[in-house]
Amino acid sequence: MKKPSFEEQLENMKKPEVSELKHQEFLSATITKAKDNSALSWWWLIIPLYLIAAFIIKSFYMPQSNLISDIHELKKEHYFTTTLCFLILPLVFAILNMISIRKTFFLSGNPAIIPFIKVVWFNVLIIALSVIILIVFIL
Fold this sequence. Notes:
This protein is 81% helix and 0% strand. The protein contains 5 helices and no strands. The longest helix is centred in the first third of the chain and has 40 residues, at 22-61.
């Protein structure tokens, strides 16, 4: 039996073909999960945003009241609920959206900023709304 030479082995070698990349699968799953998380965050953040809008409208139609005093009154009457709606929920959802943006950024291989923002714009919006709610509550 004749052993094939090294040159013959090199000539017969073929490049391995990968039909599907795992990286693309991970990235698409991460983007989908990030969008689902931000949609869930949006629904929970509607509650404090609705209250803030109601207080703004109240201060518009009743000049003796303002947004800050109305939130402080609500805080005195319903401390636990107010803390949950205006402090805990926005903090949790801001952190969750930051984590999903970070994970998407690293899985996508450090993309350019503009295309990346187009993918995660809703997460950025949720973080901005959470910060606005926190600022209004802290004032």
